[in-house]
Amino acid sequence: MWNETKSLALSKLCVKLFMALLIGFGVSAPFWLRSLLAFYSELGLETFYACFLMTIYACCVPAALLLYHLYRLLNNIGLDQIFNAENVRHLRVISWCCIAAGLVCLISGLYYLPWLLLAVAAAFIGLILRVVKNVVQLAVVLKDENDYTI
């Protein structure tokens, strides 16, 4: 039977998998990017190789930070520490990582328009996470008030 423990374990496994994929993606980026741009040579994007590479690496930094904080958040949830200031901080960092990646993609839209789609998606996810962070932050306040009530 599927339960919360298995769901949490699956989430943590997925975060670890994404961490490994991010590392592999970052290490192999120069090789697969050159091949990809050569495959689509009719678009004339080879001249933007360095720009694409800078965008990819600039997005890897917030992605790595996001995955770290997401894993820490999942660990806290596994320890039944849900409504606390540390989780609010994790959610805040995760949302700012999405917004940072969105800004990188927004700037990258100057040389390749499809980056703008990723910018909008990242910013939207960042906004949703800010709302969730605010809800959890209010829940922490309510929990603290309830804990101090006799």
UniProtKB/TrEMBL annotation:
The chain crosses the membrane at residues 20-41, 47-71, 91-109, 115-132. Keywords: Membrane, Transmembrane, Transmembrane helix. This is DUF2975 domain-containing protein. It comes from Eubacterium callanderi.
